[in-house]
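Model the whole thing, not chain by chain.
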Amino acid sequence: MSPAVVGRRGLTGNDAVALAWRQINPDVVAAYPITPSTQVVERFARYLADGEATTEFVPTESEHSALSACVGASAAGARVMTATSSQGLALMHEVLYIASGLRLPIVMAVATRALSAPLNIHGDHSDAMGSRDAGWIQLYAGTVQEAYDLSILAVRVAERARLPVMVCLDGFTLSHSLEPVLVYADDAVRAFVGEARTSGYRLLDGQDAGPLTVGPLALPDAYMDFRRALAHAMARALEVVAEETAAFNAHFGRALPVHLETSGLEEADGALLLLGSTADAVREALVGTSAGRGGIGLVRLLTFRPFPAEAVRKALSYVARVVVMDRADSLSTLGGPLGIEVRAALYGQAFPPAVTDVVYGLGGRELRPRDLERLRTLFQEAVPGPVYLGVEDG
Amino acid sequence: MSGGRSTRSAESSALRWQDLDAGPVLPGETSRRFLTGDWRERRPHLDLDRCVHCLLCWLYCPDSSVLVAGGRVVGIDLDYCKGCGVCAAVCPPSAAAIAMVEEAR
């Protein structure tokens, strides 16, 4: 075990995020509770009450206000965190673009959950996918360990890329499930995140920088230049995530995958590609099993924004078929956002694999054994989809 | 609208996106350089002989364009007044010290 590791503790995903926050000890946390992310802030508030962190905690009256408070604090030079889910993230939507447009390195935990209507508190990726074009880096945890790791990594990624980061953990499946987690020493975490490299306007230090206008009007002669710069920052963030993941692994003696993780691709003719914790179930049930001509492998993305197109192309370069499992729908008739982007990444390749898009698990719908079996048969059918797994057709 | 300097961003000349590795931040008080007076179609005409100095216009003006000294209205700042007319609307009818007149005349 790495000297940075102090031991193993049973933690839920929400516990793990709150523990990471306590160790990071950000300047400001502003939040409003919503299922299934509520316990992140509950646990963190307990740490504060117990004197284990010195963060300025701002309980607000809505998520819109929570993220607005984060924007103000981050612009003033503070290291800032928040957490939300579902309708809360939807209510933040307006402010998401302000945070990224102002290039503020805010870190947000999103315990991903379905969107209403119908009202549903259970896990899927509809909320985070609704924010995919908001200029936030999005990292998806596959385990509670990764929810902990990514929460720490996100601080350095955000501050180097000068972009806000969402750490997405599957609602309930990760947010509320207990898992043995390697916990790092407080000192090791603090050494890794270091001093905040935030907006550069250290208004909080009491330095008199004079009055500033943050986020002024930018008319047609200026607005697009800022948006072009934002696109560049997002493209460059792929490298930032890769480099910071390597630094994280060296510092903590870990092997967190860079952008994506693959299993069983060497022997595979087909690959399942997905985000998040469902990977464990399909790996257990399907990877290494036969899908007709060859076996089934797995590609799990940790980085979704920016989209790691090159890594996806490389991972899929030897398979004939890909079944993309989307835990959100775009309602475009083309399937879920992950499938659409995988297809876009493969377009123009000399011999691209055939892609089937599967929408599954909406509102917490379980993957039953027969659904897994259906996934296997899809490798032989090679239909484009979208196939809605777990609902009865006909 | 004239398309003069007041309709452009205060600091945007020779902007290159390659140099923008931070959010848009300007020094404070740059709105002073943004002369919104040329948005105006109608201008407030203030008759100081009729003014009772109740300061309602000063209170309501959304552009802080009613000039006050020593607790008394002394004029309108036409560099910034957009001509919305709220000053004339709130001026007590018994005083009726402000009338909106067409800029074109």
